[in-house]
Structure formats: structure tokens, C-alpha cells
Amino acid sequence: MITVTHLTKQYGPRTAVHDLNFEVKKGEIVGFLGPNGAGKSTTMKILTGFMPASEGKVMIAGHDVFHEPIKVKQSIGFLPENPPVYPEMSVNQYLDFAARLHQVPPKGQAAAIANTLKRVGLWDVRHRLIQNLSKGYRQRVGLAQALVHNPPVLILDEPTVGLDPKQIIEIRELIKSLRGDHTVLLSSHILPEVTATCDRVIVLNRGKIVAEDTIDHLTSRAQGGLIYALTVRNVKAAGVEALMQLGKIHTTGNRLTIELKSEDAREKVIETAVKHDMGVLEFVADKVSLEDIFLKLTTNEGSLA
Amino acid sequence: MKNIWSIARRDFQSYFTSPIAYIVIAGFLAIMGWMFFWSLNHFNIQNMQYMQYGGGKGPSITEAIIRPLYGNMNVVFLFLVPFITMRLFAEERRQHTIALLLTAPIHLTEIILGKFLAAFALVLIMLLLTGFYPIMLFATGNPELGPIVASYIGTLLLAGCCLSLGILFSAMTENQIVAGALTFSSGLFFWLVSWAQQAAGSVFGELLNYLSLTGHYNNFGQGLLHSSDIVFYLSFIGLGLFFTHRVLDSYRWR
Fold first, then answer.
1. Is residue A304 pLDDT above 60, yes or no?
2. ipTM for the complex?
């Protein structure tokens, strides 16, 4: 549904996005993860035809964004970083305008608007002016705008930003309910967000893709080597040296993190530590959370691949 | 066409959901009413004096009322148009709603034409409301119809030029005040550009005179519709909107 090849965007001398390649299949929900300024919004703006790329090609629903922007825009619903709402309009008026802009046939327009309002939970405030709504509601109005023409592709830039926890859950449920009929690409810099809603994650850092996989794969791949943590009473140089034979060691105070070559080496670790009279207090597998992966991926140049 | 209409409708409505339309219209009518009343008053006094001294015919309604009234109306528009146009694109950019328009399946040209149409409709309403003055003149005297109709056409075209300039400057900045100030000063410049005519020499002076917005208005005030004037105004409007298109397009590329 979405195919991006060699996408590059430069703002003057600064490269915001560098040589992105990825694909989103029909019916998939894919999360775009990355710290602020990683190039998520820029990529989304290019995908939606808001701005052109410096290099590369974007195909959405079988059309090239650059050459057939109108056709692409017809099949996209876009929620930008800042919800594009007119404060002086009522929710109803605004959605009416959005529906017209997206050429919803006049016949089904009222029904489409009513449907969308109920879907995003705006039915009760439909007559209120947008300027009097809270940030969370405005965000939903923005989301409603992206949904009103029932587009096959949805591109949502940080859809739950500014919402309270209850609303976040509601919106996540809403996004999950789109699975199958709609292809969704959403961005976030919050990890649980992506874990909760997406089938697949694309991790972006400094304009480059540093990882792209399902969430399960990503977790197991990050574990890669077998990492164990050994806590001892006294760290002895001789003991540490002996342990180094077994794997890479990282020492923080009296806690040693060992990346073992094989599971069988576990026994040897304890043996060695006891032999050198280090006083073993604890020996545990060092679980890597998705947070760690995210940090690892985005704080170093290091890639997991 | 439908898309142009969608845009125009929203912008036109937003003039009336904010106080802008009411204030601009009220200000316009107050100033025009004041001018109309006093020029009428002056005309009556003059005619009375002519009658008393039996000095032949006094000045005609066209000369004494219509021409100055509609000539001055243009000046009032020069002042008011910036308030009509300054928000059109600047506000969209500041509120980030421009993203909605630029990612909707419509052409940039349609967006620009829609906005122009909305502003033009507001000007049209202002002009229609002044139709009260000629109606009153027809009810009490016998003015010539030609100059009145021509004045309206001329004023509409001239205001259109100001709108086009205003939309261009509104597209250039996020700041409404900046857009408004640029619109006013550039409008004023095109107003006064012919002042340099005599000093500038024959060819260049001719050119400056041709560029003057007011220079082309004089014929309308006399009830003359010259195609050259109409073409000038229409091309001025078209060029302004074309540049607006270029500005907005380049804003996307940055």
C-alpha cells in the first residue's frame, strides 16, 4: 500500500531524512518510532504530498505522490503534528468542510460526518466551537478530519499527544479497530504507544532507519548475546580477568554484566567467581526491555542488524 | 469548481463568524455615508446659489457627487482591503490549518481562487450596500446612469487589484500585521506611482503612468469603459494570484 524507496529530504544543508526504504502492506498498522527530530514528521509530510522529497520515490495506493498528488491525496487521511483545526468553527461545521474538501459525495455526507463523530467520541460536543474545546478534544477533531472520508490509508502523526490516559486508551482502541480495512502508519516517540497498537515498528534515528521489524522479533534480536548480571561482594581484579575468558564484561560498581558465548558458560561463571572468593550475591539473566532497545538504537550510532 | 466553492464558502463564513466583516462593513458605510451626505449637502447649496443669482446651470450630479464619491470610495478600499485579506493565508499558516488544505485532493490554484472569491464577495456586498446612494439620487433627481454603472465596475476591479496584492502578501508571512502593512504600503505605492511621471522622462514616465492603479480609474469615473483599463486591472489581479501560487508552492519546497 505504501512503498518508499531511497527517500531523502534536505532542508538546505541539513539532511532531515536520509535514504529511507520501507513498505507498508495493506491492512497493516505500522509504528514510526524515534526521538523528537528523528525525521518522522518530515517523512509523513512527504508521504502525504504536503512537501516534496529531495530524492526518492513514494508510491501510495499505486500512485506516485510526486506525479499524481491528487490521486494519492484522495486515498489518504492525514493527522499532522498540530491538528489543523479552525478555532472559530464548530465541530460540525469543520467536519462538513473537511468532508467537502475530500469530496465525500453530498448524498452520504451527513451520515459520514455523524458516523465519524460517534466513532471518535465527539458526538456530544458537535455543536461547540473548536476554540472552546480542550486539547484532547481538538486532537480528536483532527483525527475525525482524517477519518471522515473513510480513506484506505491513514497517516497519523502522534495521534495521542496531549490526551489524558483514558482518552489515549480510547484512541488506541479506535486505531486498532481500523486494522484490516485501513492501512495505518502512525508515529510516536513513546514506546508503549507503539507496542499497544502496531504490528510492526520502524525505528528512525537522525533521519535513518535503524531497525524495522515486528515487536517480538525486535525484542529477541536485541537480546542477541546472552547477557547475565552478576552481583558480588568484592570485585577482585584476578577474578574479573578470569571471567573475561568467558565473555565480554562490563563493570558498574559491584555489578558485572557478562555477555556469554553460550548458555553452558553460566556454570563456569559462578565457579570462577567462587574460586576467586568474590562472594556471589546474585546471578540473573539481564532482561532487555523494549525501552532499552529503543535507547540503544537511538542513542548510539549502533544498529542492531 | 466545486473545490473553489468549498474554500470560498468557508472563508466567507469565517468573515462573519469573527467580527471582521461587521467592523469592516460598518466602518466602510459610516465613512461613505458621511461623504455622501456632505457632498449632497454641498451640491444643494451650490445649486441654490446658482438659482438665486440666475447664473445658468450649476454643476451636474455626476460631476459634483458621483465622481468624487466613487473616487473616494477607492481610497477607502485601499485602507480597508488589508484588513480583509491579511488573514487569508497568514492565519492558515499560523494555525497550521494550511496542512489540511495542502494535503486535501485539491489544486493550489483552487485554494487561491477560493480565497480570492471569498474576499471578493465581501467587497461585493460592501459595494451593493452603497447602492442606496444612487437609488436616493434617482428618487430625487435625474443623474446619468452610465457613470454610476462604470464607477461600480471600476471600483470593483480596483478593489480586486488590492485584494490580489493582499492575498499575495498574506501568503508570504505568518504574521497578519506584516501582511496587512505590506498590502497597504504596496497598494499606496501603485496609487502614487504616477507622481514621478513628469520627472521620469517620456518613456519611463509613460510606463509609470500605465502602472498607476488610479490612472486607469479616471475613465470609469467619466462613464467610459475602455478595454485597455479593464485588461490592465484583470491582468493585475491575475498576476497577483499567480505570484501567490508561486510563493505557496515555494513554501512547500523549503
1. no
2. 0.86
pLDDT in the model for residue A296: 67
CA end-to-end span of chain A:
25
Q: For residue A229, give the C-alpha cell.
A: 548480571
B193, three cell numbers: 506611482
Query: Both ends of chain B: CA-CA distance in Å?
Result: 29
Average confidence (pLDDT) over A85-114: 93
Q: Write phi, then psi, for A213 (nearest 5 degrees).
A: -170, 175
CA-based nearest distance A201→chain B, Å: 25
CATH assignment of A224-299, given 2.40.50.100, 3.90.190.20, 3.30.70.2380, 3.40.50.880? 3.30.70.2380
> Positive or negative CA dihedral for B242, B246, B249, B251?
negative
Domain boundaries of chain B, sorted by first residue: 2-15+70-130+145-253
Angle formed at CA B208 by CA B153 and CA B215, multiple of 5 degrees:
25
Q: Which of A74, A82, A88 sits opposite B18 (nearest CB)?
A: A88
Q: What percent of chain B has pLDDT over 90?
A: 63
**What percent of chain A has pLDDT above 70?**
90
Using an 8 Å CB-CB cutoff, list chain A residues near B98: 84
| CB-based contact A73 B17, cutoff 8 Å | no
- Please tell me the class of the A2-215 domain: alpha beta
As a whole number of angstroms, the distance between CA B91 and CA B4 comes to: 19
Q: Which residue has the higher pLDDT, B65 or B82?
A: B82
- Domain locations in chain A as residue ranges: 2-215, 224-299
CA-CA-CA-CA torsion for B172, B174, B176, B182, nearest 10 degrees?
-30
Q: In chain A, what's the furthest Cα-to-Cα distance?
A: 83
The C-alpha cell at B252 is 512547500
In three-state form (DSSP H/G/I as H, E/B as E, the rest C), the secondary structure along A40-64 is HHHHHHHHCCCCCCCEEEEEECCEE
Give the gap in angstroms from C-alpha B176 to the nearest C-alpha of chain A: 16
The alpha carbon of residue A80 is apart from the nearest alpha carbon of chain B, in Å, by 7
Chain-chain contact of A100 with B6 (C-beta, under 8 angstroms): yes
Test A11 with B254 for CB contact under 8 angstroms: yes
